[in-house]
Design a protein that fits this description.
The complex is a heterodimer of chains A (345) and B (528). In chain A, 78% of the residues lie in helices and 0% in strands. By secondary structure, chain A is mainly α. The chains are: A mainly alpha (345), B mainly beta (528).
């Protein structure tokens, strides 16, 4: 163990005191002097690096932290700090071994993401998220990593197999995400022509049509998907919704009931069931479904819609007081929803 | 047998050279995308339908000066075209005294009626600026009587209509106003693209109701009647008696908020009842961009129903009158939902275009944003009109005969060539109008022209029942427009008709074994 001169100790202590009081410039100056008096002190270099990090002077932190590592300093957070300092300045490849040494999966994942090692980044970020599920930064990086990985895989798929069904499917999904409906439609149709048995193609094409308000075409695609995947609750729901939009109430109710059977108690399905039943004049079923929606999701726009529809049913039945009560609930919920309302144009 | 596929033939009658000029600017002034109306009327009572188009204008002043719109330039005039015996038209705007639209007025809509019961239709033009009432002098000319009449209004007026709300035999006037807006307080909305702002960006305002005093003047009764009690962003207006109490009610199409149904209390006041009647929102409780409206009985059950046009993805709202003061939203069951989900509609009319005894649907279409395709490629600034034939339970798309996509706005209907089938005119924002001549094979028909004696001279507000059909006498409805006042019935294979007329005065008139395939004037009995 090295013996420190009294002056070195004084500078170290002065630096620590200043750091505690938030006087980072003073602390940095004191630690700087300590490193000059004893260039072999890993502690002094680590303290200087840490003070730079605290002052958000990440670039300046790199050299003292590196020196601390060279001097075999063993301080908690040394490698991780150096890793983040390097990462902040864009030295991702250098940062990776530091995070590995620190066993920091969060830092490692971020560095790998920046370095383009997407698969490894996804693994490490997912592991980090398991320990810190509510960390917004982690969620952001994980989302970015998975998105880029997906894009990378799609790019590979498109460049290697451009005329395959999967290639067209991937292309169509990209167009769809960009709201380029016409191009998405064409690509989905090409994919379907090549592999009519592939699941999700008709469903996704139907959704493109539904978004454009072309409900006849959407219904046709959802029907095709339902033939391929009769056990898909999502498909049954989409088909039921399209049938409802097209005013085919009997069949809409059948499909929505099927969706509810396959995946019970989804509020959207129950609301659509209630709406279809109400349109069909089946007030009893409509009331049950809509009340269930409200029980499952007492606030939000779906609940507001359910209260509004219930008010209409009660009004038709001459139950004025109940209708009024539902309208009040609707107005309360709608008022809350309208604070962030979207525009009509 | 030769089958005609398209219902209409797009025509370019000789003499009609109108081009609507909205003069769009980079400032994206909202007025630029909302005009202008069209009217079908017989201004000289020669039995031939004439056409009146509202023009808009061009902002011509410096930013700090009062707004002017260069309306004295002939290209910005409103235009009146007189129909000649050979089907051609002659521009009579200047000779008729209609060329002075007012330099401070950016034109919007038109209403037509004989407000002074002299037997000649008068013209009311709405504007951003001041509205103008032109009195028909019975000699082919008009006089601007706005000041004397007291109906200039102000702000931004849109649709208007004459109706007799107190059944005193004189036509009153309702004017919708869109919002509190002016060029100096205008905004541009920037997302990825520079666009016209949504209506919510500007404050709502009140509508106007004028009572006809019978001496050429009107009184503004907006406040005392209750109409001015609620503010909105109103565009379309239509009239009918939805609860059969003998007093005309008012439906107002509002943009991006709850719609209005003003129930006529029968004592000079109105109560807004849209929510309790079930016509305030969609069946989900969602507001939409209400623009045009028609208020007629589409299913021949004797009760007036409603259709309100709106923007793409919202689906036009059809409300079926259930007969107990309430309506049911029927857009999906009638097929209108799937027909209109991708489209944006303005002027609208339920009318029997194939004379089969059922009212069909015609809509002027096109999105409000001129760059909407850049924002959402599935929406379209220009669209062909929608023609949907009434097949009983559902409406089905039919070939309108118009393949041209236009920025449709106003829509008026009438029998332009007096052949017993109803034609239509659609005004086009910044363009030439579409003149649609009906060419369906002839089924039987009867068209009646009412002449009130104890009621107002036009018979506006009369309920005319023929066999199982019901029509309400009104030139109002649609968007910014006024239709032929004659009432048309298609009769299919029927060769005689029974008529029952409930006049606003309370008189009921019954006519049996009426011969069909003709125009028929019906005069109200002078005694009840």
């Amino acid at each position: 163990m090295q013996s420190a001169s009294p002056t070195l100790v004084e500078h170290e202590q002065a630096g620590i005191a200043a750091q505690k009081q938030g006087q980072l410039d003073v602390a940095i100056s004191e630690f700087q002097k300590a490193t000059e008096l004893n260039p072999d002190s890993a502690t002094a270099f680590f303290d200087l690096g840490a003070a730079y990090m605290q002052a958000h002077r990440y670039g300046d932190a790199i050299e003292p932290l590196k020196k601390a590592v060279e001097l075999k300093g063993e301080f908690p957070g040394l490698h991780e700090s150096l890793g983040y300092a390097l990462l902040s300045q864009g030295y991702t490849a250098e940062a990776i071994p530091q995070f590995q040494a620190a066993n920091s999966r969060e830092g490692l994942g971020i560095a790998q993401l920046e370095n383009g090692d997407l698969a490894d980044a996804v693994n490490n970020l997912e592991a980090a998220l398991a320990s810190h599920p509510d960390n917004a930064d982690l969620l952001y990086y994980f989302g970015r990593a998975t998105g880029l990985l997906s894009q990378q895989i799609n790019d590979k798929l498109l460049s290697s197999y451009p005329n395959s069904a999967r290639g067209y499917q991937s292309l169509a999904e990209n167009y769809s995400a960009l709201h380029q409906a016409k191009q998405a439609e064409e690509a989905f149709q090409k994919a379907i022509k090549l592999r009519p048995d592939l699941p999700d193609l008709h469903l996704a094409l139907g959704e493109v049509y539904a978004h454009a308000g072309e409900w006849d075409k959407a219904e046709e695609e959802f029907r095709a998907e339902a033939k391929l995947r009769p056990g898909s609750a999502e498909t049954a729901f989409q088909l039921g919704s399209a049938l409802l939009q097209n005013g085919h109430l009997d069949e809409a109710r059948e499909q929505l009931a099927l969706a509810n059977q396959l995946q019970p108690d989804m509020p959207e399905t129950l609301y659509a069931m209630g709406k279809a039943a109400s349109m069909h004049g089946d007030s009893s079923a409509a009331t049950d479904d809509l009340k269930r929606v409200i029980a499952l999701e007492p606030s939000g726009s779906l609940a507001a819609q359910a209260h509004f529809t219930l008010a209409g049913i009660y009004r038709k039945q001459g139950k004025s007081a109940q209708a009024q009560r539902e309208m009040e609930q609707y107005q309360t919920l709608k008022g809350a929803a309208d604070t962030g309302a979207d525009s009509s144009k | 047998m030769f089958l005609i596929k398209a219902v209409f033939r797009q025509d370019s009658p000789q003499g009609i050279d109108f081009v609507h000029l909205n003069s769009p600017t980079s400032q994206k002034y909202l007025i630029e995308t909302m005009g202008g109306g069209v009217a079908i009327l017989d201004y000289n009572n020669d039995g031939l339908a004439d056409l009146f188009f509202v023009n808009s204008g061009q902002l011509a002043n410096r930013a700090d000066a009062p707004e002017t719109f260069a309306r004295s330039e002939p290209k910005f005039w409103n235009r009146l075209y007189r129909q000649n015996r050979d089907g051609s038209f002659t521009d009579v705007t200047k000779a008729a005294g209609l060329s002075a639209a007012g330099d401070a007025n950016y034109g919007m809509g038109v209403a037509v009626a004989d407000y002074d019961n002299d037997g000649y239709p008068d013209i009311f033009v709405t504007s951003y600026g001041k509205n103008v009432l032109y009195h028909n002098n019975q000699d082919g000319t008009f006089t601007d009587v706005t000041e004397k009449a007291g109906v200039a209004g102000g702000g931004w007026s849109a649709s208007a209509g004459f109706f007799d709300y107190d059944n005193d035999g004189r036509l009153d006037l309702f004017v919708t106003r869109y919002m509190e807006w002016n060029t100096k307080q205008s905004k541009i909305c920037n997302g990825d693209y520079r666009t016209y702002c949504p209506p919510e960006a500007f404050p709502a305002t009140t509508n106007l109701l004028y009572h006809n005093n019978g001496d050429g003047t009107f009184s503004d009764v907006s406040a005392s009647s209750g109409i001015g009690r609620v503010k909105a962003r109103s565009l379309g207006v239509a009239f009918n008696d939805y609860d059969g109490d003998g007093y005309t009610d008012i439906f107002v199409a509002n943009d991006g908020m709850q719609e209005f149904l003003f129930h006529n209390n029968g004592n000079g006041t109105f109560t807004e009842r849209a929510l309790e009647a079930g016509v305030g929102f969609t069946d989900d409780g969602s507001p939409y961009a209400g623009m045009g409206v028609d208020f007629r009985d589409y299913d021949n059950d004797g009760r007036p129903d409603l259709i309100v046009t709106n923007l793409a993805k919202q689906v036009y709202a059809i409300y079926h009158n259930e007969g107990n003061g309430s309506f049911a939203y029927k857009s999906l069951e009638t097929g209108i939902g799937s027909l209109t989900a991708p489209s944006s509609g303005w002027g609208v009319r339920f009318e029997d275009f194939d004379n089969d005894g059922r009212k069909d649907l015609l809509v002027a279409q096109g999105h409000v944003l001129d760059n909407v395709e850049q924002i959402d490629p599935s929406k379209h600034y220009r669209e062909p009109p929608l023609l949907a034939m009434n097949r009983g339970e559902r409406f089905e798309r039919a070939d309108s005969g118009v393949s041209t996509a236009v920025a449709g706005r106003g829509l008026a209907i009438g029998d332009l060539n007096n052949d017993g089938s109803t034609d239509a005119v659609i005004s086009v924002l910044g363009g030439r109008p579409l003149i649609l001549m009906n060419q369906t094979p002839h089924a039987h028909w009867l068209t009646v022209c009412l002449r009130g004696t104890r009621s107002n001279r036009d018979g506006a507000g009369a309920i005319v029942k023929m066999n199982d059909q019901t029509q309400y006498a009104s030139t109002a409805g649609s968007y910014l427009s006024a239709s032929d006042k004659r009432i048309h019935f298609g009769l299919g294979s029927g060769t005689t008709a029974s008529l029952e007329i409930d006049w606003p005065s309370g008189t009921r008139q019954v006519l049996k074994d009426v011969k069909v395939d003709r125009f028929m004037e019906i005069t109200e009995p002078t005694k009840p």
